[in-house]
Task: inverse folding
Protein backbone atom coordinates (compact mmCIF):
# COMPACT_ATOMS: atom_id res chain seq x y z
CA UNK A 1 0.00 0.00 0.00
CA UNK A 2 1.32 3.45 -0.93
CA UNK A 3 0.42 6.45 1.14
CA UNK A 4 0.57 10.01 -0.15
CA UNK A 5 0.90 12.83 2.32
CA UNK A 6 0.87 16.49 1.35
CA UNK A 7 2.83 18.88 3.56
CA UNK A 8 0.15 21.56 3.41
CA UNK A 9 -2.77 19.20 4.03
CA UNK A 10 -4.62 20.22 7.23
CA UNK A 11 -5.72 17.68 9.82
CA UNK A 12 -9.38 16.64 9.79
CA UNK A 13 -9.75 16.94 13.55
CA UNK A 14 -6.93 19.30 14.55
CA UNK A 15 -7.20 21.69 11.60
CA UNK A 16 -4.27 23.71 10.36
CA UNK A 17 -2.36 23.51 13.65
CA UNK A 18 -1.38 19.96 12.69
CA UNK A 19 -0.90 19.34 8.99
CA UNK A 20 0.94 16.91 6.77
CA UNK A 21 4.15 18.78 7.53
CA UNK A 22 3.70 18.08 11.25
CA UNK A 23 3.29 14.36 10.55
CA UNK A 24 6.56 14.47 8.61
CA UNK A 25 8.36 16.31 11.40
CA UNK A 26 7.00 13.85 13.97
CA UNK A 27 8.16 10.86 11.91
CA UNK A 28 11.63 12.31 11.34
CA UNK A 29 11.97 13.13 15.05
CA UNK A 30 11.39 9.44 15.81
CA UNK A 31 7.82 9.81 17.04
CA UNK A 32 5.13 7.24 16.47
CA UNK A 33 2.08 8.18 14.42
CA UNK A 34 -1.34 6.55 14.48
CA UNK A 35 -2.64 5.38 11.11
CA UNK A 36 -6.24 4.57 10.27
CA UNK A 37 -7.10 3.40 6.79
CA UNK A 38 -10.35 2.55 5.07
CA UNK A 39 -10.88 0.87 1.72
CA UNK A 40 -13.57 -0.58 -0.50
CA UNK A 41 -12.40 -4.20 -0.20
CA UNK A 42 -11.88 -6.58 -3.09
CA UNK A 43 -11.25 -10.28 -3.71
CA UNK A 44 -7.49 -9.79 -3.63
CA UNK A 45 -7.54 -7.17 -0.82
CA UNK A 46 -10.51 -8.07 1.41
CA UNK A 47 -9.49 -6.01 4.44
CA UNK A 48 -11.60 -2.86 4.61
CA UNK A 49 -10.23 -1.25 7.74
CA UNK A 50 -6.81 -0.95 9.27
CA UNK A 51 -5.54 0.62 12.45
CA UNK A 52 -1.87 0.74 13.38
CA UNK A 53 0.90 2.84 14.89
CA UNK A 54 3.99 3.44 12.81
CA UNK A 55 7.45 4.91 13.18
CA UNK A 56 9.65 6.00 10.30
CA UNK A 57 11.59 2.70 10.42
CA UNK A 58 8.33 0.74 9.94
CA UNK A 59 7.91 2.13 6.43
CA UNK A 60 9.68 0.27 3.62
CA UNK A 61 10.40 3.60 1.97
CA UNK A 62 9.72 7.20 2.84
CA UNK A 63 10.50 9.39 -0.13
CA UNK A 64 10.09 13.13 -0.26
CA UNK A 65 9.07 14.51 -3.64
CA UNK A 66 8.72 18.27 -3.88
CA UNK A 67 7.18 19.72 -7.01
CA UNK A 68 8.30 23.30 -6.30
CA UNK A 69 11.23 24.25 -4.08
CA UNK A 70 14.12 26.69 -3.83
CA UNK A 71 12.46 29.66 -5.58
CA UNK A 72 15.24 31.79 -7.09
CA UNK A 73 13.67 34.84 -5.39
CA UNK A 74 10.18 35.68 -4.18
CA UNK A 75 7.96 38.75 -4.16
CA UNK A 76 7.96 40.66 -0.88
CA UNK A 77 4.55 41.39 0.61
CA UNK A 78 2.77 44.32 2.20
CA UNK A 79 -0.88 45.31 2.69
CA UNK A 80 -2.43 48.69 1.86
CA UNK A 81 -5.95 47.75 2.97
CA UNK A 82 -7.43 48.77 6.30
CA UNK A 83 -7.56 45.31 7.82
CA UNK A 84 -4.95 42.81 9.02
CA UNK A 85 -4.43 40.03 6.49
CA UNK A 86 -3.35 36.48 7.31
CA UNK A 87 -1.52 35.09 4.30
CA UNK A 88 1.11 32.55 3.30
CA UNK A 89 3.42 35.56 3.58
CA UNK A 90 2.55 35.79 7.27
CA UNK A 91 0.58 38.45 9.13
CA UNK A 92 0.40 41.60 7.02
CA UNK A 93 -0.60 44.61 9.09
CA UNK A 94 -3.06 47.18 7.67
CA UNK A 95 -2.07 50.48 5.99
CA UNK A 96 1.37 49.21 4.91
CA UNK A 97 2.14 48.32 8.53
CA UNK A 98 4.93 45.87 7.69
CA UNK A 99 6.76 44.03 4.91
CA UNK A 100 7.49 40.32 4.80
CA UNK A 101 9.92 38.67 2.44
CA UNK A 102 11.21 35.19 1.87
CA UNK A 103 14.36 33.62 0.51
CA UNK A 104 18.05 33.55 1.32
CA UNK A 105 19.08 36.14 -1.29
CA UNK A 106 22.79 35.74 -1.97
CA UNK A 107 22.78 32.17 -0.60
CA UNK A 108 19.98 30.98 -2.90
CA UNK A 109 21.29 28.14 -5.13
CA UNK A 110 19.62 29.31 -8.36
CA UNK A 111 20.69 32.93 -7.82
CA UNK A 112 24.26 31.58 -7.77
CA UNK A 113 23.72 29.67 -11.02
CA UNK A 114 20.89 31.44 -12.88
CA UNK A 115 22.11 30.15 -16.27
CA UNK A 116 22.07 26.53 -15.04
CA UNK A 117 25.72 25.98 -15.94
CA UNK A 118 25.91 23.41 -13.15
CA UNK A 119 22.44 22.76 -11.71
CA UNK A 120 20.42 20.39 -13.87
CA UNK A 121 18.45 17.16 -13.83
CA UNK A 122 20.24 14.67 -11.59
CA UNK A 123 22.30 17.24 -9.64
CA UNK A 124 23.03 15.96 -6.15
CA UNK A 125 21.71 18.22 -3.38
CA UNK A 126 21.46 18.52 0.39
CA UNK A 127 17.79 18.04 1.27
CA UNK A 128 16.95 18.47 4.95
CA UNK A 129 20.20 16.76 5.95
CA UNK A 130 19.78 13.84 3.54
CA UNK A 131 21.27 13.28 0.12
CA UNK A 132 18.79 14.30 -2.54
CA UNK A 133 18.57 15.05 -6.24
CA UNK A 134 17.16 17.63 -8.61
CA UNK A 135 14.42 15.88 -10.61
CA UNK A 136 13.95 18.78 -12.97
CA UNK A 137 12.61 22.28 -13.07
CA UNK A 138 9.77 22.84 -10.64
CA UNK A 139 6.21 23.98 -11.18
CA UNK A 140 5.85 27.70 -11.96
CA UNK A 141 9.48 27.59 -13.19
CA UNK A 142 9.96 30.91 -14.92
CA UNK A 143 13.64 31.48 -15.75
CA UNK A 144 13.08 34.39 -18.19
CA UNK A 145 11.80 36.44 -15.26
CA UNK A 146 14.33 35.09 -12.73
CA UNK A 147 11.69 33.10 -10.89
CA UNK A 148 13.14 29.64 -11.47
CA UNK A 149 12.17 26.73 -9.25
CA UNK A 150 13.37 23.16 -8.71
CA UNK A 151 11.61 19.85 -8.37
CA UNK A 152 13.59 17.76 -5.90
CA UNK A 153 13.53 14.41 -4.20
CA UNK A 154 15.30 12.83 -1.25
CA UNK A 155 15.28 9.95 1.20
CA UNK A 156 13.16 11.01 4.15
CA UNK A 157 14.58 8.26 6.34
CA UNK A 158 17.94 10.05 6.33
CA UNK A 159 16.56 13.53 7.00
CA UNK A 160 17.24 15.51 10.13
CA UNK A 161 14.54 17.30 12.11
CA UNK A 162 16.99 20.17 12.40
CA UNK A 163 16.38 20.98 8.71
CA UNK A 164 12.74 19.96 8.37
CA UNK A 165 10.26 21.98 10.43
CA UNK A 166 6.51 21.99 10.30
CA UNK A 167 4.91 25.43 10.37
CA UNK A 168 1.45 26.94 10.55
CA UNK A 169 0.56 30.25 8.99
CA UNK A 170 -2.21 31.69 11.15
CA UNK A 171 -5.59 31.53 9.38
CA UNK A 172 -3.88 30.29 6.23
CA UNK A 173 -2.67 26.75 6.73
CA UNK A 174 0.18 24.36 7.43
CA UNK A 175 3.49 24.57 5.64
CA UNK A 176 6.94 23.03 5.71
CA UNK A 177 10.26 24.75 6.33
CA UNK A 178 12.99 22.84 4.56
CA UNK A 179 16.77 23.25 4.34
CA UNK A 180 18.05 22.82 0.78
CA UNK A 181 21.65 23.31 -0.33
CA UNK A 182 23.49 22.84 -3.61
CA UNK A 183 27.29 23.11 -3.75
CA UNK A 184 28.24 24.86 -7.00
CA UNK A 185 31.73 24.29 -8.43
CA UNK A 186 33.30 27.27 -10.19
CA UNK A 187 33.77 25.57 -13.55
CA UNK A 188 34.06 28.60 -15.78
CA UNK A 189 34.15 32.40 -15.83
CA UNK A 190 30.39 32.68 -15.96
CA UNK A 191 30.02 30.60 -12.77
CA UNK A 192 32.81 32.62 -11.12
CA UNK A 193 30.77 35.72 -11.81
CA UNK A 194 27.35 34.33 -10.94
CA UNK A 195 28.46 32.73 -7.66
CA UNK A 196 29.76 36.15 -6.57
CA UNK A 197 26.16 37.41 -6.48
CA UNK A 198 25.35 39.88 -3.69
CA UNK A 199 22.06 40.72 -2.00
CA UNK A 200 22.01 44.07 -3.78
CA UNK A 201 22.05 42.30 -7.18
CA UNK A 202 18.77 40.48 -6.51
CA UNK A 203 15.65 42.64 -6.76
CA UNK A 204 12.05 41.80 -6.04
CA UNK A 205 8.82 43.79 -6.15
CA UNK A 206 6.92 44.51 -2.93
CA UNK A 207 3.47 43.29 -3.85
CA UNK A 208 0.32 44.76 -2.33
CA UNK A 209 -1.69 41.85 -0.89
CA UNK A 210 -4.34 44.35 0.20
CA UNK A 211 -5.59 44.49 -3.39
CA UNK A 212 -7.73 41.42 -3.83
CA UNK A 213 -7.05 40.78 -7.46
CA UNK A 214 -4.99 38.05 -9.02
CA UNK A 215 -2.68 40.64 -10.61
CA UNK A 216 -1.78 42.38 -7.38
CA UNK A 217 0.06 45.65 -8.00
CA UNK A 218 3.73 46.15 -7.10
CA UNK A 219 4.40 49.01 -4.69
CA UNK A 220 8.15 49.27 -5.21
CA UNK A 221 11.20 47.34 -6.45
CA UNK A 222 13.72 46.57 -3.73
CA UNK A 223 16.82 44.39 -3.39
CA UNK A 224 17.45 41.71 -0.78
CA UNK A 225 20.01 44.12 0.66
CA UNK A 226 17.24 46.70 1.16
CA UNK A 227 14.94 44.08 2.68
CA UNK A 228 17.60 42.70 5.02
CA UNK A 229 18.28 46.23 6.31
CA UNK A 230 14.96 45.82 8.15
CA UNK A 231 13.44 49.14 7.05
CA UNK A 232 11.96 50.12 3.68
CA UNK A 233 10.71 53.55 2.71
CA UNK A 234 7.18 53.22 1.29
CA UNK A 235 5.59 56.49 0.23
CA UNK A 236 7.63 58.44 2.77
CA UNK A 237 6.84 56.05 5.62
CA UNK A 238 9.51 53.89 7.25
CA UNK A 239 8.09 50.37 7.15
CA UNK A 240 9.58 47.51 9.14
CA UNK A 241 10.63 44.57 6.96
CA UNK A 242 11.42 41.08 8.18
CA UNK A 243 11.91 37.66 6.68
CA UNK A 244 9.83 34.50 6.94
CA UNK A 245 12.64 32.13 6.01
CA UNK A 246 15.62 31.82 8.29
CA UNK A 247 18.91 33.21 7.03
CA UNK A 248 20.58 31.73 10.10
CA UNK A 249 19.43 28.27 9.01
CA UNK A 250 20.48 28.97 5.40
CA UNK A 251 23.99 29.63 6.71
CA UNK A 252 23.85 26.43 8.75
CA UNK A 253 22.86 24.45 5.64
CA UNK A 254 25.76 26.02 3.75
CA UNK A 255 28.31 25.20 6.45
CA UNK A 256 26.98 21.64 6.99
CA UNK A 257 27.28 21.08 3.26
CA UNK A 258 30.76 22.60 3.14
CA UNK A 259 31.87 20.20 5.85
CA UNK A 260 30.45 17.20 3.98
CA UNK A 261 32.18 18.28 0.75
CA UNK A 262 35.51 18.80 2.53
CA UNK A 263 35.32 15.37 4.16
CA UNK A 264 34.59 13.79 0.80
CA UNK A 265 31.16 12.63 1.95
CA UNK A 266 29.31 14.68 -0.63
CA UNK A 267 30.35 14.19 -4.24
CA UNK A 268 29.47 16.55 -7.05
CA UNK A 269 27.78 15.20 -10.15
CA UNK A 270 27.33 16.36 -13.73
CA UNK A 271 23.73 16.96 -14.74
CA UNK A 272 22.04 14.35 -16.90
CA UNK A 273 20.01 16.99 -18.72
CA UNK A 274 19.92 20.78 -18.48
CA UNK A 275 16.92 22.46 -16.88
CA UNK A 276 14.32 24.21 -19.01
CA UNK A 277 15.42 27.68 -20.08
CA UNK A 278 11.82 28.63 -20.70
CA UNK A 279 8.95 28.38 -18.31
CA UNK A 280 5.55 29.63 -17.45
CA UNK A 281 3.91 30.96 -14.33
CA UNK A 282 0.49 32.17 -15.37
CA UNK A 283 -2.51 32.22 -13.06
CA UNK A 284 -4.88 29.37 -13.82
CA UNK A 285 -7.30 29.93 -16.68
CA UNK A 286 -10.81 30.34 -15.35
CA UNK A 287 -13.45 29.36 -17.85
CA UNK A 288 -16.26 30.26 -15.50
CA UNK A 289 -15.44 33.88 -14.78
CA UNK A 290 -16.91 35.11 -11.56
CA UNK A 291 -18.53 38.53 -11.91
CA UNK A 292 -17.02 41.72 -10.58
CA UNK A 293 -18.80 44.26 -8.41
CA UNK A 294 -19.47 46.40 -11.51
CA UNK A 295 -21.53 43.58 -13.04
CA UNK A 296 -24.07 43.41 -10.23
CA UNK A 297 -24.10 46.82 -8.52
CA UNK A 298 -26.90 49.30 -9.00
CA UNK A 299 -25.85 52.52 -10.66
CA UNK A 300 -28.88 54.66 -9.79
CA UNK A 301 -27.49 55.55 -6.41
CA UNK A 302 -28.88 58.52 -4.52
CA UNK A 303 -26.37 60.18 -2.28
CA UNK A 304 -26.78 63.15 0.02
CA UNK A 305 -24.67 65.90 1.54
CA UNK A 306 -24.06 65.97 5.28
CA UNK A 307 -26.02 69.20 5.77
CA UNK A 308 -29.49 67.92 4.94
CA UNK A 309 -32.07 67.26 7.66
CA UNK A 310 -32.91 63.75 8.81
CA UNK A 311 -36.51 64.18 7.62
CA UNK A 312 -35.39 64.92 4.09
CA UNK A 313 -33.15 61.84 4.06
CA UNK A 314 -36.06 59.73 5.33
CA UNK A 315 -38.23 60.95 2.41
CA UNK A 316 -35.48 60.03 -0.08
CA UNK A 317 -35.18 56.57 1.41
CA UNK A 318 -38.92 55.96 1.25
CA UNK A 319 -39.35 57.24 -2.32
CA UNK A 320 -36.33 55.35 -3.63
CA UNK A 321 -36.91 52.10 -1.73
CA UNK A 322 -33.33 52.12 -0.46
CA UNK A 323 -32.08 51.06 2.93
CA UNK A 324 -28.80 52.93 2.69
CA UNK A 325 -27.81 56.42 1.64
CA UNK A 326 -24.16 57.24 1.03
CA UNK A 327 -23.18 60.67 2.34
CA UNK A 328 -20.79 62.54 0.09
CA UNK A 329 -18.74 65.75 0.10
CA UNK A 330 -19.31 68.56 -2.38
CA UNK A 331 -16.85 66.86 -4.74
CA UNK A 332 -18.85 63.64 -4.55
CA UNK A 333 -16.31 61.84 -2.31
CA UNK A 334 -17.62 59.28 0.15
CA UNK A 335 -17.79 60.58 3.75
CA UNK A 336 -20.21 58.27 5.49
CA UNK A 337 -23.38 56.25 5.26
CA UNK A 338 -26.91 56.50 6.62
CA UNK A 339 -29.16 53.51 7.15
CA UNK A 340 -32.87 53.33 7.91
CA UNK A 341 -31.82 52.24 11.40
CA UNK A 342 -29.77 55.45 11.92
CA UNK A 343 -32.81 57.47 10.91
CA UNK A 344 -35.19 55.54 13.15
CA UNK A 345 -32.80 56.05 16.05
CA UNK A 346 -32.60 59.80 15.38
CA UNK A 347 -36.38 60.10 15.11
CA UNK A 348 -36.91 58.06 18.28
CA UNK A 349 -34.44 60.33 20.04
CA UNK A 350 -36.75 63.20 19.18
CA UNK A 351 -34.04 65.76 18.46
CA UNK A 352 -34.00 67.34 15.02
CA UNK A 353 -30.58 66.62 13.58
CA UNK A 354 -28.41 66.91 10.54
CA UNK A 355 -27.32 63.83 8.60
CA UNK A 356 -23.69 64.69 9.38
CA UNK A 357 -24.39 64.22 13.10
CA UNK A 358 -25.89 60.76 12.86
CA UNK A 359 -24.08 59.13 9.94
CA UNK A 360 -21.56 56.32 10.31
CA UNK A 361 -18.21 57.74 9.31
CA UNK A 362 -16.27 54.50 9.23
CA UNK A 363 -17.81 53.22 6.05
CA UNK A 364 -16.73 50.15 4.11
CA UNK A 365 -16.71 50.48 0.35
CA UNK A 366 -16.08 48.33 -2.70
CA UNK A 367 -14.30 49.01 -5.98
CA UNK A 368 -16.04 48.35 -9.29
CA UNK A 369 -13.27 46.04 -10.55
CA UNK A 370 -13.17 43.84 -7.45
CA UNK A 371 -14.56 40.30 -7.61
CA UNK A 372 -17.93 39.91 -5.87
CA UNK A 373 -16.38 37.31 -3.56
CA UNK A 374 -14.47 40.14 -1.92
CA UNK A 375 -17.65 42.20 -1.39
CA UNK A 376 -19.34 39.10 0.06
CA UNK A 377 -16.40 38.63 2.44
CA UNK A 378 -16.59 42.26 3.58
CA UNK A 379 -20.35 41.89 4.23
CA UNK A 380 -19.72 38.77 6.28
CA UNK A 381 -16.68 40.05 8.19
CA UNK A 382 -18.35 43.28 9.29
CA UNK A 383 -21.98 42.09 9.45
CA UNK A 384 -23.21 44.67 6.98
CA UNK A 385 -25.61 44.33 4.07
CA UNK A 386 -24.69 47.13 1.67
CA UNK A 387 -21.69 49.20 0.58
CA UNK A 388 -21.15 52.14 -1.71
CA UNK A 389 -19.01 51.39 -4.76
CA UNK A 390 -16.32 54.02 -5.30
CA UNK A 391 -13.84 54.87 -8.03
CA UNK A 392 -10.13 55.58 -7.60
CA UNK A 393 -10.88 59.05 -6.24
CA UNK A 394 -13.30 57.66 -3.65
CA UNK A 395 -16.28 59.10 -5.55
CA UNK A 396 -19.50 57.12 -5.26
CA UNK A 397 -20.46 55.44 -8.54
CA UNK A 398 -22.88 52.77 -7.34
CA UNK A 399 -24.19 50.64 -4.55
CA UNK A 400 -23.83 46.92 -3.88
CA UNK A 401 -26.15 45.12 -1.47
CA UNK A 402 -26.53 41.58 -0.18
CA UNK A 403 -29.70 41.45 -2.32
CA UNK A 404 -27.56 41.83 -5.44
CA UNK A 405 -25.45 38.88 -4.33
CA UNK A 406 -28.37 36.64 -3.39
CA UNK A 407 -30.25 37.30 -6.65
CA UNK A 408 -27.05 36.40 -8.49
CA UNK A 409 -26.97 33.06 -6.70
CA UNK A 410 -30.66 32.46 -7.38
CA UNK A 411 -30.11 33.06 -11.10
CA UNK A 412 -27.28 30.51 -11.22
CA UNK A 413 -29.46 27.69 -9.99
CA UNK B 1 9.41 49.61 33.22
CA UNK B 2 6.27 47.78 32.31
CA UNK B 3 3.58 46.73 34.74
CA UNK B 4 0.70 44.43 34.07
CA UNK B 5 -2.42 45.04 36.15
CA UNK B 6 -5.03 42.38 36.71
CA UNK B 7 -8.27 44.09 37.52
CA UNK B 8 -11.70 42.86 38.45
CA UNK B 9 -14.16 43.90 35.73
CA UNK B 10 -16.12 46.20 38.07
CA UNK B 11 -13.04 48.36 38.43
CA UNK B 12 -13.73 50.23 35.19
CA UNK B 13 -16.34 52.15 37.14
CA UNK B 14 -13.60 53.73 39.24
CA UNK B 15 -10.76 55.90 37.88
CA UNK B 16 -8.09 53.67 39.44
CA UNK B 17 -5.26 54.55 37.08
CA UNK B 18 -6.03 58.27 37.30
CA UNK B 19 -6.06 58.20 41.09
CA UNK B 20 -2.71 56.38 41.19
CA UNK B 21 -1.23 58.94 38.79
CA UNK B 22 -2.48 61.80 40.96
CA UNK B 23 -1.21 60.19 44.14
CA UNK B 24 2.25 59.27 42.86
CA UNK B 25 2.76 62.00 40.27
CA UNK B 26 4.28 59.33 38.00
CA UNK B 27 4.22 59.86 34.23
CA UNK B 28 2.28 56.71 33.44
CA UNK B 29 1.68 55.63 29.86
CA UNK B 30 -1.23 53.24 29.28
CA UNK B 31 -0.01 50.93 26.51
CA UNK B 32 -2.77 48.38 26.39
CA UNK B 33 -6.05 47.78 28.15
CA UNK B 34 -8.53 45.00 27.61
CA UNK B 35 -11.44 44.43 29.94
CA UNK B 36 -14.31 42.04 29.38
CA UNK B 37 -17.07 40.55 31.50
CA UNK B 38 -14.82 38.28 33.53
CA UNK B 39 -11.36 39.83 33.67
CA UNK B 40 -9.29 42.83 32.79
CA UNK B 41 -5.66 43.49 31.90
CA UNK B 42 -3.92 46.83 31.69
CA UNK B 43 -0.29 47.28 30.64
CA UNK B 44 1.44 50.44 31.85
CA UNK B 45 4.83 51.97 31.17
CA UNK B 46 6.13 53.57 34.38
CA UNK B 47 9.41 55.48 34.96
CA UNK B 48 11.86 53.25 36.86
CA UNK B 49 12.28 55.63 39.80
CA UNK B 50 8.53 55.72 40.50
CA UNK B 51 7.91 52.05 39.82
CA UNK B 52 7.83 50.75 43.40
CA UNK B 53 5.60 53.60 44.53
CA UNK B 54 3.16 52.97 41.68
CA UNK B 55 3.07 49.23 42.40
CA UNK B 56 2.23 49.86 46.04
CA UNK B 57 -0.45 52.42 45.15
CA UNK B 58 -2.19 49.88 42.94
CA UNK B 59 -1.87 47.09 45.50
CA UNK B 60 -3.43 49.35 48.14
CA UNK B 61 -6.45 49.66 45.82
CA UNK B 62 -6.80 45.89 45.51
CA UNK B 63 -5.24 45.61 42.04
CA UNK B 64 -2.85 42.74 41.32
CA UNK B 65 0.37 44.06 39.80
CA UNK B 66 3.09 42.21 37.96
CA UNK B 67 6.38 43.51 36.68
CA UNK B 68 6.83 42.49 33.05
CA UNK B 69 10.49 41.54 32.96
CA UNK B 70 10.52 38.77 30.35
CA UNK B 71 8.84 39.84 27.10
CA UNK B 72 7.70 36.45 25.80
CA UNK B 73 8.68 32.88 26.50
CA UNK B 74 10.39 31.24 23.54
CA UNK B 75 10.83 27.52 22.95
CA UNK B 76 14.43 27.47 21.73
CA UNK B 77 13.95 24.04 20.14
CA UNK B 78 11.12 25.34 17.97
CA UNK B 79 12.49 28.76 17.00
CA UNK B 80 14.32 28.75 13.65
CA UNK B 81 15.08 32.50 13.77
CA UNK B 82 13.02 33.19 10.66
CA UNK B 83 11.98 36.70 11.66
CA UNK B 84 8.20 36.45 11.26
CA UNK B 85 7.83 38.08 14.71
CA UNK B 86 10.13 41.02 13.97
CA UNK B 87 8.07 43.32 11.77
CA UNK B 88 4.63 42.56 13.25
CA UNK B 89 5.56 43.62 16.79
CA UNK B 90 4.02 47.04 17.53
CA UNK B 91 6.75 47.95 20.01
CA UNK B 92 9.80 46.59 18.18
CA UNK B 93 10.63 43.98 20.83
CA UNK B 94 12.43 41.67 18.40
CA UNK B 95 15.50 42.33 16.28
CA UNK B 96 18.17 40.39 14.42
CA UNK B 97 21.63 40.04 15.88
CA UNK B 98 23.86 38.25 13.37
CA UNK B 99 20.63 36.71 11.95
CA UNK B 100 19.58 35.37 15.32
CA UNK B 101 16.27 36.81 16.57
CA UNK B 102 16.75 38.43 19.97
CA UNK B 103 14.09 40.01 22.19
CA UNK B 104 14.67 43.20 24.16
CA UNK B 105 13.18 43.20 27.62
CA UNK B 106 10.97 46.04 28.72
CA UNK B 107 9.32 46.67 25.35
CA UNK B 108 6.66 43.94 25.18
CA UNK B 109 3.07 44.92 25.97
CA UNK B 110 1.75 41.33 25.93
CA UNK B 111 -0.50 41.90 22.92
CA UNK B 112 0.12 38.43 21.50
CA UNK B 113 0.58 39.45 17.84
CA UNK B 114 3.84 37.46 17.67
CA UNK B 115 2.28 34.40 19.28
CA UNK B 116 -0.13 33.81 16.40
CA UNK B 117 2.35 35.21 13.85
CA UNK B 118 5.03 32.64 14.71
CA UNK B 119 4.87 29.87 12.08
CA UNK B 120 6.77 27.48 14.37
CA UNK B 121 4.45 28.15 17.34
CA UNK B 122 7.55 28.84 19.45
CA UNK B 123 6.24 31.84 21.41
CA UNK B 124 4.01 32.11 24.47
CA UNK B 125 2.92 35.07 26.54
CA UNK B 126 4.43 35.16 30.00
CA UNK B 127 1.11 35.10 31.78
CA UNK B 128 -0.96 32.72 29.71
Result:
Amino acid sequence: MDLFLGATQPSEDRGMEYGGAHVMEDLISGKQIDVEAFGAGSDCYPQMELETSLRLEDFNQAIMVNPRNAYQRYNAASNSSDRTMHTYMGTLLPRLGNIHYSGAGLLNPISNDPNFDYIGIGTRIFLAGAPGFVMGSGTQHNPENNFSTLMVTGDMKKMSSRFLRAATFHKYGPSLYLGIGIPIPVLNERLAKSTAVRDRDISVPIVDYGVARRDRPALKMVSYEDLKSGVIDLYGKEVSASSLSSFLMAREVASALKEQVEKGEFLLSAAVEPLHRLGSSRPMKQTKESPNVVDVMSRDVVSVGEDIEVEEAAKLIVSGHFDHLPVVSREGKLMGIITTWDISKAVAGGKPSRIGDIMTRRVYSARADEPIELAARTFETHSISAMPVVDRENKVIGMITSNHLSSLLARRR
Amino acid sequence: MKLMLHVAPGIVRYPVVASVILETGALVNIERASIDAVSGEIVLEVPAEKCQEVIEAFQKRGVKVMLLEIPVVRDENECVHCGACVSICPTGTFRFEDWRVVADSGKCIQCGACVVGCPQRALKLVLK
